[in-house]
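Regression test attached.
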Amino acid sequence: MNLPDHVQIREVGPRDGLQNEPEVIATADKIALIDCLSASGLSRIEVTSFVRADVIPQLADAAEVLGGVTRRNGVDFGVLIPNRRGLEDALRLRDRFDEVSVFLSASQTHNQKNVNRTIEQSLDDLTDVVADAGAEGLRCVAVIATSFGCPYEGRVAPEAVFSVAERLAQAGCVEIGFGDTTGMANPAQVAEFFRAAPDRLPNVQLTAHFHNTRGQGPANVLAALQAGCRSFESSFGELGGCPVPPGSTGNVATEDVVSMLHEMGVDTGIDLDALVACSRKAQETLGRPLGSHVLRAGPVVWNG
Ligand code: ZN
């Protein structure tokens, strides 16, 4: 296998995960979980999202969480920004984070259901948000949901995804994440996508964001890796999902991805035992079992 020495993993569980779990978790518990993640060797964590509290009550305490977490050298914090208002709210805590993510969907129907806008409207809005965030010295990441399939429209042509991505890169996004939001991607499709992407998007960091809705998350990570992708987003404990449609649970678990990578000799900089301890803590906080395999089985031990 043609494998790299190192890949980058961005932990999105505190945002993508907790946003989509049914419970509202106490602010102090969120801060404790993020501090735990910060100490596990992760270099990037998406901490929260500045969304409207009436839309996503799970993240209504974004400012308290961002203000309360411990800043650590070598750990970049990101926040998800849905619109200009969200950016303004986040900027009150400008010294607490390093990067912003903006998002839209590659399919019209999913974008309408998720943010009540056409793709064109979203691109117009986000172009302004990215310009303002860039002027503040923030690194801008865009995540394109339903990049590999839409539960309403079916197949999404890579060409449609690439043209949206090009617009976001022109707007100033230095990294683009491609989300398999409802777990429809397969490894052959993923390999083809990530082989084609660098030609269309030179000088952009390309990131894969897989959900394990149908158990194909790690297989898709491996396919993307072999096709040249070196940057991944995942969620500790397999927390998360997508609000539409119902049943779209589960980002691929960070510890499952890290275990697979480390066993193959690909470094992530993450201490797997410390990461699993974070997921155990999340499981205790939520009071129910989480989906992650390595959390249940424990990391592989070869000498025991
Ligand atoms: Zn996701």
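Expected vs. actual: identical. The pocket of zinc ion is lined by residues 16, 179, 181, 209, 211, 240, 251 (CB under 6 Å).
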